[in-house]
Amino acid sequence: MKIKTAIISVFDKKNINFILSTLTELNVKIISSGGTYKKIRNLGYKCQEVSKFTNSKEILNGRVKTLHPKIYSGILSKRNNKSHIKELSKNKFMEIDLVISNFYPFEETIKKNKQSEIIENIDVGGPSMVRAAAKNYNFVTVISNPNQYNRLINELKKNKGKTTLKFRKQLSFEAFLETGYYDSVISNYFNKFSKNQFTEKKIFHGKLLENLRYGENPHQKGAIYNSNNETKIKQISGKKLSYNNYNDIFSALKICESLPKNLGTVIIKHSNPCGVSIEKNKLLSFKKAVLCDPISAYGGIVSFNFKINKKIALEFNKIFFEVIVAKGFEKKSLKILKKKKNLRIIESRNINKNSFVNISHNFNSMLLQEADTKVFSKKNFQIVSKKKPTKKLFDSLIFAFNVCRFVNSNAIVLAQNESIIGIGSGQTSRLDSCEVAINKMKKFQNINIKDEVVAASDAFFPFVDGIETLVQSGVKAIIQPSGSINDKKIIKFANDTGTILVFSKTRHFKH
Amino acid sequence: MKIKTAIISVFDKKNINFILSTLTELNVKIISSGGTYKKIRNLGYKCQEVSKFTNSKEILNGRVKTLHPKIYSGILSKRNNKSHIKELSKNKFMEIDLVISNFYPFEETIKKNKQSEIIENIDVGGPSMVRAAAKNYNFVTVISNPNQYNRLINELKKNKGKTTLKFRKQLSFEAFLETGYYDSVISNYFNKFSKNQFTEKKIFHGKLLENLRYGENPHQKGAIYNSNNETKIKQISGKKLSYNNYNDIFSALKICESLPKNLGTVIIKHSNPCGVSIEKNKLLSFKKAVLCDPISAYGGIVSFNFKINKKIALEFNKIFFEVIVAKGFEKKSLKILKKKKNLRIIESRNINKNSFVNISHNFNSMLLQEADTKVFSKKNFQIVSKKKPTKKLFDSLIFAFNVCRFVNSNAIVLAQNESIIGIGSGQTSRLDSCEVAINKMKKFQNINIKDEVVAASDAFFPFVDGIETLVQSGVKAIIQPSGSINDKKIIKFANDTGTILVFSKTRHFKH
Fold first, then answer.
1. Model ipTM value
2. How far apart are CA A206 and CA B61, in angstroms?
């Protein structure tokens, strides 16, 4: 299709001069209105005002400009349909072959959060025109984003002022992506004020942050998207982050954000924790986290919910991590860490809270759920054994239970004070999780220690056997949701063995 | 806002009579066009044609009807803005207070896949009008779906012909959800023809299939959505499916669909397999799958990639499952199974292949990757040990490696013939996964069996220790991707111990 007439209506006017110079060279008639018209004239190009073209004044402070039959007939007419051609000529309408538009910056405006401005920045004319042009891609070319200008210029030069069907179809797809994305942003903005998150229809949107080298494995392509515009984790140094790095960083941050501020270290491998510790002495917190399972920690990612000092940085000369995440880095520490060219250094100071919804996409279905962000304290828990925990032991139980919910189910977590010393994850039987956690503890810990070992379970114990295994291995206090038909037997066993037993009431499966 | 004038343009005309009767009672002036106009007149209600209202003929076979300044000024004018009021009156325009529209059935049309019809079913007029009304929700009410009629009728009755701002705002949100959803469907349809899945912007959509009792845990709300219109798994009998049921069913189906047709049984617990077996004798396939870990299997979900017969149905009297999934059920088998009122019986005959993209949503980021659906055969694999596998053993290795990729990393899978006999899942160290798999095998299997045990690993062994542990426990052949700096040492160890070693080249992490 040779392009003879174009309509241009753009909020973002950058690089518009490049496209204007090409269109003028090709003798394309340009129609425009409002700010775009002024810009085009200021740049010295010929242009007809939409109001002159339609013979109909722009009204309501520009709320209605291009919404006119002459515009839409020009865009929507089929060039190979005789009656369409006849109707156009009868009405003195003309074909419009190219629509260039981009929309009012709704996404940027919602950040300001001024209600009146927000409404004004819902574009009606732009998306309507873009959608019409995109529908008629057999004949019409639509440019819906300034980043397409170069492609249009090349296409027009290559084809002497024409565009190919393939090119128009691709731009049509991109146009519907723009309009769909735009309305997804708007509806998600309004959804914030709605009680019901699980509406009859649901849309999610994302903007490409970066293409990743690959997904979980080299034969899977992968990418990361922002689902809103706010600042994300910030990489300071090191190799490019991989899909698995991102995945592990998110796992680490979820735990870190749940720990008391300025105290915690979390080590992640294959999206599960292999070390978590809270200590006032930050270096100790790090050392204890590593000690939980130094073998797994090797090559893992470590995340701190505090600022890194020189002492901690020096520890990175002793053990290899792929990624370090922290709330900030003291100058000296950064100097030390940056020497490791491969170490990915990430600042997480401005991260958003975890998104409210988990998405699992399979077989053309999407399972959606609220994220498990429940915060709990002692108040939620009920001590059901005769023996009662000291404050110190209770704190340890809460700590263990909190970490437990971030471990793949079935999950058993063993802790001493506020450091994890054994983790049983991803098992299909709870008894196996107990055994895995105990084996890990025995492998790396000196269990003849004075402080008592506690255990947390993400869901109830169906039988006494799991508890029995834990107690036999030296566990002194256990926290679990309760809810089994064998709860009474389990309480009796706890009392018979002098074990402290706490019911947490809430379950924390994570798969 | 008192509603005086309404414009109605609906493709889906069901229940329109209810709304017409209410609007007529309230003396609302109705404007309409085309098929909607005819329908309204046929139902005996007063109505003005849009072309008379705008004094502008409908052209291009109805491609341009409502796209007119008089319509859009009526919808978009601010009722509290003096210059807007003046302009309207000067142009002899009038306020339109209510827009009722629903769109051409694009989603239904793409199933037919007739290119020309598809384009014709991209609605331009409807979404434009709905978006304009939704923008001006401070003054205008927008109905974008027939399922909102009742709410509008109640609202108008309650407020004597008026609507409240709260009501209009909610409908505005729902309108943008409709338009965003509509364009998401269109852009995803076009994206099928595009090579690049990871475009600059990305939208996903879903239609609510059902609200679930809760998510993974009772304190998390959950729901399941269809991301397209095609038939899904079909529940025949039993209790309502839970979030975790769905999640496990999807895990089971992924494995089932990867197995040779009509042969395989898969048992899932907590989204990981705890038994997989292929046997020509279907009953044996089931029994062997259970035998892998009868404790975990209890209360799990079992999935067959064949039709269930009476013999298999009778086995369900011996062991408790929450869900049975199969390609179909012989009549007699269904009679037996249906006696268990709680057992969820699911037919998976018409399920779609797994969706191409995994979504992981965290901290306002979305990690996207292609699903790991790579199919492999012997050709992909390289035998690196001196000792070569028999065909039978090679088949067993391929089977084990295939199952291994569906197990949470680090994953080690032990198989005998084509039945899994040990699984090490979700461990942060590969050596631990080896130990977990071996412990499971020892717990349930008589390992003094004549058929040889093989092992598969989802990623390379970093050191000799894992392989050593496996071989010491009786494993005769091992398949793993390779890629460690210790590969040579590992080959040497295999040769020294007469172990068969195969390099699969591809890694299959799954987190």
1. 0.92
2. 37
